[in-house]
Design brief:
The complex is a heterodimer of chains A (493) and B (294). By secondary structure, chain A is an alpha+beta fold. Chain A contains 17 helices and 15 strands. With 294 residues, chain B is mostly helical. Helices cover 47% and strands 5% of the residues of chain B. In chain B, helix 8 crosses helix 13, helix 9 packs across helix 10 and helix 9 packs across helix 12. Classes of the chains: A alpha+beta (493), B mainly alpha (294). At the A-B interface, strand 7 and strand 13 of A face helix 6 of B.
């Protein structure tokens, strides 16, 4: 029999189907979970991280960043109206959306690396779903009491007291949802202005709509859907299962130490009699505190977000019964086997897998950094005018039209000189540009804007061909000296 | 009352109640509509009644019920259009007061005028002159310098506003080329000779076997008065430049014979009668920007 099967066979029969996502009936409605209050190292860590994350979330939209008079002063701003994304010294235009792709790739790789090192730390400590559920559970516990009180209240018939508690809970939930989920809108507009507008009820309608939507989703996801989101909606638990290995640290019930599980008295008798007795007294505390409602003693499973609260619960019990703590701990399956063989536990954080992830993260990160530091503040694109493809002019010449689009990513107006190469005897003109003394055309572009210029190139008929002659347009920034070239064709009869 | 009793009869297999309908011993399970569905259905009915009261809903003889709110899609559209006109009036105030030259000199006005002019061009001019102003046979190609009536901003504005040979407009561009063949001024052979000569003006090959020198003489006697001795045309009378190889109605021998025999004299409408002065100005600026403006 495999270890898992042994563990399973030792469980009481009626527990087999409780909260068992793998083997439960396909369409059964999920049983409500009543997580019990717990205190300890990991609970403290989780509150600490929650406070740090929420603080960052609230403070960041109000951080200012000076970009000159023509651009917003908000350090982090997703400006949908002008299709710009600002992040401190970085400004991203819509065509540079690949930076977002890069960030998503990095985020995925960081998730893989963290998983290879410490299991689902993202799920347990950082995921907004976990954080908000924690916050909502805290409110629920304050209003309705701990696990047993809540179970009792749910089973009780409706009364004024129950109604009052329910009303208070939902009102507080909605307030928390409004203050936390709704605050996301601050990243999409000038935060102080929006806040003032909201306070005086003069904010744009779209702000109210989105705050309403985000408040509702926060309320629904953290108040009602909770662990269902992790089990049924989130893809990560399923991907994670495929990415983990036997050396990854996971919240693990040390089955080698815990089994055979006996009651406190039986265990004492067994030890006196020299029979084997595990440290697990089957008190069920690890299950009672679990926000996912899983039994960690069944081993690594889809439902476990590895928040470590069962470690705190078990440690509390172990201290009370004077057994060593960390019967449940961050450990690996390999180490359980090693200890069963009488070897020492080994923690291998540096493995081919983690090295590989780190190298790929470094590679993607450097590539993005390289792109970011070498990108130009001048953009130029060209489109040949197709109606007509060319014009024959009276003095045996041919003219081609081009639509050029200049992009000025600077925060102040810039001036560009435009030249054309590749076509013999070509002269250029444009209604939108001024002629410089040296014959180049000067194009002026507003700060942080684009400008379209119709360029007409006229050249002797002999310089053109029906198949097209390669032509290169070059723009030079008269202030910074940056140059950008684009290529097209010059057509004739 | 057998049916009432059997209504409570429970099917032993599924545990569900039966409706009481039985055929050949086969009973029908009682599966009522889900409550949530029924509630939404009732809510829809309530909503519909409210809608009848508040909004236009019922057709009546010679009209319809207007509803308490008096909402009207037609009035909404009219209000929206008025609002747009107000916004446009603000942005176009600069265009209204400026001359075409001032518009071209001011970058902001120019950008506005080009956007406005392009839209107006596509809506009004593109059917004849093409989407890019490239024209076609008999329709002026606005991207080359072969202007009959001048390619300066003022000339273009004048042509657009008053048209060519649109006699409903007293300021229209007027000139008529005589139908030399149809009116009997020139004989067919003479037309062949002069057509052949006109081709040589544009350095095109003359028709073989046709007396070009005779054509030259005929040209000097009949055509030079309008097209000039050198055939370069005169903008004051809108006569074509015959030396640039760009003929509005085609430079082939056949095309030229057709032109000389029957004349062409096509019409461009006077757009001033149809479009407002700001649009005429922006059209002039746009056409001028197509590469051939002078």
């Amino acid at each position: 029999m495999s270890e898992a099967a042994i563990r399973k066979s030792q469980l009481p029969a009626e527990e087999d189907h409780r909260e068992d996502y793998d083997e439960g009936p396909l369409y059964a409605s999920a049983a409500k979970i009543y997580p019990q209050k717990v205190w300890g190292t990991f609970r403290r860590l989780k509150w600490g991280l929650l406070i740090v994350c929420l603080a960052a979330y609230y403070i960041l939209p109000f951080v200012r960043w000076d970009r000159g008079p023509n651009e917003p002063h908000q350090a982090i701003l997703i400006d949908l109206a002008h299709s710009r994304f600002y992040w401190f010294f970085i400004e991203i235009w819509p065509q540079e959306v690949y930076y977002f792709t890069g960030i998503l790739v990095l985020a995925a790789l960081a998730l893989f690396l963290s998983n290879a090192l410490f299991g689902r730390v993202w799920c347990g400590y950082f995921c907004p779903q976990t954080a908000w559920t924690d916050l909502f559970l805290w409110v629920e516990r304050m209003v309705e009491g701990d696990r047993r009180d809540r179970m009792k209240l749910d089973a009780a018939p409706w009364s004024a007291g129950k109604l009052g508690k329910r009303a208070a809970k939902h009102a507080l939930w909605l307030l928390v949802a409004l203050a936390t989920g709704g605050a996301f809108a601050l990243y999409f507009a000038d935060a102080p202005t929006l806040l003032r507008g909201l306070a005086t009820l003069q904010a744009p309608t779209v702000a109210y709509v989105w705050i309403g939507i985000l408040t509702f989703t926060t309320y629904a996801l953290a108040g009602f859907m909770r662990e269902q989101v992790c089990v049924y909606m989130c893809p990560w638990p399923r991907i994670q299962a495929a990415l983990t290995d036997s050396e990854a640290l996971n919240v693990t019930y040390r089955v080698d130490r815990g089994e055979p599980r006996l009651s406190l008295k039986e265990a004492a008798r067994a030890r006196v009699a020299g029979r084997p007795a595990g440290d697990c007294v089957d008190c069920g505390q690890c299950v009672a505190v679990c926000p996912m409602g899983v039994d960690i003693r069944k081993g690594l499973q889809l439902g476990c977000i590895q928040c470590g609260l069962c470690i705190d619960a078990c440690d509390t019990v172990m201290k009370k019964i004077h057994r060593p703590i960390r019967l449940i701990s961050y450990d690996t399956d390999e180490n359980i086997k090693r200890r069963e063989r009488g070897e020492k536990a080994v923690y291998k954080l540096i493995r081919p897998r983690t090295i590989f992830y780190a190298v790929v993260i470094a590679a993607v990160g450097s590539l993005m950094l390289y792109k970011l530091t070498t990108r130009q503040n001048l953009g130029l694109s060209v489109l040949h005018v197709r109606a007509p493809m060319y014009t024959a002019t009276p003095n045996d010449a041919v003219r081609n039209g081009y639509t050029l689009r200049f992009a000025n990513k600077w925060g102040e107006p810039h001036h560009y000189a435009l030249t054309v190469d590749g076509v013999a005897g070509a002269s250029i003109k444009s209604e939108e540009a001024d002629k410089l003394p040296d014959g180049r055309l000067e194009v002026d572009v507003d700060p942080d804007a684009t400008a379209e210029v119709q360029l007409y190139v006229t050249a002797p008929r002999s310089s053109a061909s029906a198949a097209g002659v390669a032509i290169v347009m070059t723009a030079t920034d008269l202030q910074s000296g940056e140059t950008v070239s684009v290529a097209d064709h010059f057509f004739g009869p | 009352m057998a049916t009432t009793e059997s209504h409570h009869e429970v099917d032993p297999v599924t545990g569900q109640t039966l409706t009481g309908h039985r055929w050949d011993g086969i009973g029908e399970l009682n599966t009522p509509l889900p409550r949530w569905w029924l509630m939404i259905f009732y809510a829809c009915i309530v909503f519909a009644v409210g809608y009848w009261i508040l909004y236009p809903a019922w057709p009546l003889i010679g009209g319809f019920s207007h509803g308490v709110l008096g909402q009207s899609s037609r009035a909404d559209v009219a209000a929206d259009l008025d609002a747009i006109k107000k916004v446009r009036a603000q942005t176009e105030a600069g265009l209204k007061d400026a001359t075409v030259q001032q518009i071209v000199a001011d970058k902001k006005l120019l950008a506005l005028a080009l956007a406005h002019g392009k839209a107006a061009f596509l809506a009004n001019c593109a059917p004849c002159h093409g989407a890019g102003g490239q024209g076609g046979k008999g329709y002026r190609n606005l991207t080359n310098e072969d202007w009959l009536w001048g390619g300066a901003l003022d000339d273009i504005q004048q042509t657009i506003a008053h048209g060519i040979r649109d006699y409903a407009d007293t300021d229209t561009r007027q000139s008529t080329m005589p139908a030399f063949g149809a009116m009997g001024v020139l004989k067919p052979e003479e037309i062949r000779q002069v057509a052949s000569y006109v081709r040589t003006l544009s350095k095109l090959a003359p028709e073989p076997g046709v007396d070009v020198q005779a054509g030259k003489k005929i040209f000097a006697d009949n055509c030079a008065v309008c097209h000039g001795d050198d055939g370069k045309g005169m903008r004051s009378v809108g006569s074509a430049n015959l030396t640039d190889g760009l003929q509005l109605y085609g430079g082939d021998f056949k095309d030229l014979i057709q032109t000389i025999t029957y004349a062409r004299n096509s019409t461009m409408p006077a757009w001033g009668a149809k479009l407002d002065p700001v649009t005429i100005k922006t059209l002039a600026v746009y056409v001028h920007s197509l590469g051939a403006g002078q």
